[in-house]
Amino acid sequence: MRILLVEDDVEVARFVKKGLQEAGHTVEHAPNGREGLFLAASEAFDMLVLDRMLPGGVDGVRLVETLRGQGNRTPVLFLSALSAVDERVKGLKAGGDDYLVKPFAFAELLARVEALGRRPSSEAPVTKLRVADLELDLLSRTVTRSGKRIDVQPREFRLLEHLMRHAGQVVTRTMLLEKVWDYHFDPQTNVIDVHVSRLRQKLDKGFDKPLIHTVRNAGYMIRAEA
Amino acid sequence: MSERLARPPPPPRLLQSAGFRFALLFMAIFSVAAGLLVAVLWWATAGAIDRQTVAAIRADTLALMDRHRDAGPLGLIESIEDRMAQDAEAVTIYLLMDRDGRKLAGNLDHWPEGIAGDGTWFRTELHHDGATSEARLHRRDLPGGLSLLVGRDESERTQLDIVMAEGMAWSLGAILLLGGVGASLVRKALQRRMAPAMLTAQGIAAGDLARRVPVSLRHDEFDQLGATMNAMLERIEALMSGVRSVSDAIAHDLRTPIARARGKLEEALDAARSEEGLRAAVEEGIADLDNISRVFQALLRIAEAEAGARRAAFAPLDLSAVLSDAADFYEAMAEARDQHLETDLPDRLDLVGDRDLLLQAVANLLDNAIKFTPPGGKVRLSARRDGRVAEIAVEDSGPGLPQADKDRALDRFFRADASRNAPGSGLGLSLVRAVTQLHGGEVWLEDAQPGAEPPGLRVSLRVPLP
């Protein structure tokens, strides 16, 4: 992906840029809002990673509002030191697609960037999700593996749905907490792990190939091969 | 700076003083009212006398003219003489002259100057009976070339005018004097009543937050102002002490993990012989940092809730749904620890509040309960409506807390000795308290099964319903 990073802190910018490049992305960096807006408006990017507070008169929120006002729909991920929920809401209302609070683990950033960048492009609604022999039917709300029906709770269904929509991508615990439970706080303990391992037991019981994999220091990923 | 602020401000100059201006305004209104009163009085007295005089002159004139018509000039002269003879107080004035300007009858020596034609009214200064006086006169011309002047001496009325004008001047002077004195008294009184509030505000500005406005028992506007200021000061002081205790807490409980992380990293730098060892140390360092920012985040949330800043995010919500969601979330964790999480929730419990904060508060309670309850134990989340209050309770079958710890459990960073080694920041319950207070409610801790061993712990929140 071609990513525009607008971040005024040199050190954060350097390590984010390096990390994204190592993950195979092309990164342009702008150190302030004005330059960022200029680049974002004049060149094509697959994704913008924006600091919420930027020097130079144009902050992250203004930048996104301006872009959206011009009909530019490039996905935007906010990075911010402002953690209050209202601030998050403000960022998303302005047209941001995701919001990550500093300090963050790079794995978290990367997972969110990739999840945002590979959102389904077709508008046609998907009715079935498939990973290897696992199938999830969004209409009948059923899960089958190799044709065998697996009983899941409604919340487990949504958890699995989220993992499968991002099959092959890392999904972090915080992302699951936000997207599946709509919780925006720190649950202190590893509750997400418990939920995932419960789901994993249900899915893998009687099969020798595990589907949900733990990615060390990052989160989870569902994919066909071990 | 503090010295400059601590000194009382010079009282405002006279015209700047609000009290003085209020009093002046009052005085002006009062003067207008007094003026109106005098005008009415004047009209009622002097005016009435005037009108009476005019009526008497007119009647007299008409009577004399009738007499002239009936009895001719001689009868008229006779009548005039009669009237003059009857007028003991000498207030009537008559003069009858013939065509050549000779006086035929009357008590005026000569025709006054500047008198216009038939039927006119005028006032003039006259000399008659050896005295000078104001008079009102009426002239009529009669057939046969006669001119008749009928009038009344108005000395009394003039006297009245003078008396009234003098009275007015005196009372105006008195109004001005009393008004001025009153204005400065009002100004002084205002300043005296304002002074305590002003001194307090200055003391506060100079940094002495403990000052309060002395409130008298009069319950007047100034006492209300003082009481309001005091309430505001209480709040400010509470916030300040909140900030202070956050910084104390940061100093104490953030520095320790930072020091630990730093030490570990430094040690690894010196001692690690392999890349693997170094890597492990760095990973540990990152985990430590994550914990530190987690504590930091929790502190910020507490501060946010305590400051009441999030009340803007209040929205109607169904507390039952929020709680059953949280129970659903933690049920998996309880199950993994072989515990039973049961719920007792009403179908609906409508509340106006902050969903995220309420969730986090309940999550903290459930997390604690699950953490401190041994395997096989029981955790129970319940909610009920009690009149205009929603009561939420989380109870467990864990070891509970001794009374002394229960009292301190809601303080920041308090951790019971027994839990020193359990994971957690020690901020969970203070967040619960801050969130509950933000919603106008209260928290308390008690034994879940009093008398039983172990007694377990029950944390209850009571939040007022809309």
Automatic annotation (TrEMBL), chain A:
UniProt keyword annotations, A-Z: DNA-binding, Phosphoprotein
Report domain OmpR/PhoB-type positions. Answer: 126-224
Which parts form a coiled-coil structure per UniProt?
none
Report the domain of life of the source organism: Bacteria
Q: Which InterPro entries match?
A: CheY-like_superfamily (IPR011006), OmpR/PhoB-type_DNA-bd (IPR001867), Sig_transdc_resp-reg_receiver (IPR001789), WalR-like (IPR039420), WH-like_DNA-bd_sf (IPR036388)
Q: Which residues carry this modification: 4-aspartylphosphate?
A: 51
Segments forming domain Response regulatory: 2-117
CDD domains reported for this sequence: REC_OmpR_PmrA-like, trans_reg_C
Q: Which residues bind DNA?
A: 126-224
* Official protein name in the record: Response regulator transcription factor
Taxonomic source organism: Sabulicella glaciei
Automatic annotation (TrEMBL), chain B:
Please state every residue range assigned to the domain named HAMP. Answer: 188-241
- Major site of localization recorded for this protein: membrane
Q: Does the record's keyword annotation contain DNA-binding?
A: no
Listed EC numbers: 2.7.13.3
Q: Which reaction does it catalyse?
A: ATP + protein L-histidine = ADP + protein N-phospho-L-histidine
Residue ranges crossing the lipid bilayer per the database entry: 20-44, 167-186
Q: Which UniProt keywords apply?
A: ATP-binding, Kinase, Membrane, Nucleotide-binding, Phosphoprotein, Transferase, Transmembrane, Transmembrane helix, Two-component regulatory system
Would I find Transferase among this entry's keywords? yes
Q: Where is it localised?
A: Membrane
| GO function term, MF aspect, one | ATP binding
Give residue ranges for domain Histidine kinase: 249-466
> What PANTHER family does UniProt report for this protein, alphabetically?
HISTIDINE KINASE, SENSOR HISTIDINE KINASE YKOH
Quote the protein name from its UniProt record.
histidine kinase
Give the source species. Sabulicella glaciei
